[in-house]
Amino acid sequence: MKRRTRIYYTESQKALMWERWKKGDTLHQIAQLFDRHHPSIQRILAETGGIRPVQRKRSQLSLTLAEREEISRAVTAGQSARSIAASLGRAPSTISRELKRNGGQEDYRASQAEQAAWDRAHRPKPCKLVENRALAHIVADKLKWQWSPEQIAGWLKQTYPSDESYQVSHETIYRSLYIQARGALKKELLDHLRRTRVMRRSRHHTLKTGDHGRITDAVSISERPATAEDRAVPGHWEGDLLCGSDNSQIATLVERQTRYVMLVKLPSKDTETVINALIKHAHKLPQELYKSLTWDRGSELADHKRFTLATDIKVYFCDPQNPWQRGTNENTNGLLRQYFPKGTDLSAHSQAQLNAVARRLNERPRKTLKFETPAERFNQCVASTG
User: Fold this and answer.
1) Number of domains observed in the structure of the chain
2) pLDDT-derived band at 45, boundaries 50, 70, 90
3) Is residue 215 a part of any domain in this protein?
């Protein structure tokens, strides 16, 4: 059996890979640049969990290759370490150490000394979570509760405002998870992240697009009031269907100001069933907290006029092929996939189970809410309407 030849990439080619990965290109798109298959690209990027390695830099205090070549020539000419130091403007001890660690005056070679210096300098800075194991245990516990690294970092900053030893950036947490060589967090904790990937993706990775159908008398999102657009007041919601196998689905609703989530069980996705379920759910909230609903162009809301007539809630629709205009809901649906993976039967979940999942999301601190929880913000709104 013929063995496949291992593919090697130059540093400039790897730099191009990282640049395109950061821009949001897929592995297949990047592979096409090199006329290769995507596994060879994934091998490079996965070594550091999809996180670009920091480019190595030479310390300004280190000897340069040019200086080492000067040392080599001076040694060959029989000059002493002190005279070499004087000509280079260096301390005599610097030259003595350089010669001693690289074969002495008889065997000193500039190129070999340069490579040895780079090899010795390749010692990564100890990770904060390795040095502070108590902090690492706190982070691990929060990850098990499905908190995101950004939520953990924000919560730590609020909980330990005057103790920097118990503060860590979300980037450090991600790196500790995806780069196992750090030895800070166990790989099993990756399973608790919202999106269980082997590599970290670019924030520019594309979201789904598509026009799901034509809606009669649809009111464009451009006509939505400014108070809804700038999140100035509560009561403006975004909604969509989260789909599973066997034609199963869940309606997801997110309040724009507080990011409060509600989930609605649906026996089917025909417009009559969906509208009936949304009407029933809308009646559970004070009218002051349900002023409008923004939806994608899905045919399940074809009977939107009946919904508005029954609830006095106005419905607005995204522009065709622009689901990102409901960004809050799109993001929430991504988080919900941790609990409702693609390809699973969503009809198996009861309304009580859906409420429990919604509660999980609503009781997590959110960066955009200054690390308060959606439940706290929404309850404040409910209290003010009482």
Assistant:
1) 4
2) confident
3) no
